[in-house]
Amino acid sequence: MSGKKKTKKQKKSFLESLKSIVTSTTFLGIVFVLLLGLVIILGIYVHDKKNEEREELHANIMIPINEVETEYEFSISAIDLRKVGKYIFKITNYLKDAINEDEIVYSITIQNPTDSVITLTKEDAKENLMLDQKKTVIENEILPSLYKKDVYYTVQFAEIGDLKNKDLISIIINS
After folding, report:
1. Are 149 and 103 a contacting pair, CB within 8 Å?
2. How far, in whole angstroms, is CA 6 from its chain's centroid?
3. 41 CB burial (10 A radius; 0-12, 13-18, 19+)
4. pTM greater than the 0.85 cutoff
5. What gap in Å lies between CA 168 and CA 107, rounded to an integer?
6. Residue 142: which of 89, 102, 105 has the closest Cα?
7. Strand order in 117-122's β-sheet?
8. pLDDT tens-digit series, residues 117-170
9. What's the pLDDT score for residue 9?
């Protein structure tokens, strides 16, 4: 008789342990699937954010400032700016692999002949550097030496007025 009782107890304990194994395995499986889903969602989110940053940081023009007392001037068509939405220019302290040995101080002058309101922002800042909508000079900007540095500026319309084909927004960079 005692052999039969042990068998029933063994069967019960085996069934209980099997239930706990199935339950814990199922629970672990559900947790694994949820974590896997979370990792996939976060991966997609990070990938999308990197693509947004790459698009934003793609400069329309790169201006290497590697000498003191140089001047670079370029113009943006107001009509083209309205079409593309924003214009990004990048100022660097290097040309290919040659990095400036000394700090270089530079200034930016922007002339806006239109009756539109434009904004100029630096890097990720939201502050509009265009204090005067007709002509703004930003002075004492510094490019460091000994390591590569990219400084991004974005020009875009805040309000669009009457634009003419000949309207050019002029940007002058002096070092």
Report:
1. no
2. 69
3. exposed
4. no
5. 20
6. 105
7. 61-64, 86-92, 150-159, 117-122
8. 888 999 888 888 888 888 889 899 999 988 889 999 998 888 787 777 788 888
9. 57
SS3 label, residue 104: strand
Per-residue DSSP letters for 34-95? HHHHHHHHHHHHHHHHHHHHHHHT--SEEEE--SSS-EEEEEEEHHHHHHHSEEEEEEESEE
What φ, ψ does residue 128 adopt, rounded to 5°? -80, 120
CB atoms within 10 A of CB 108: 21
Residue 33 CA to residue 97 CA, distance in Å, equals 47
Nearest to 86 by CA among 134, 112, 121, 111: 121
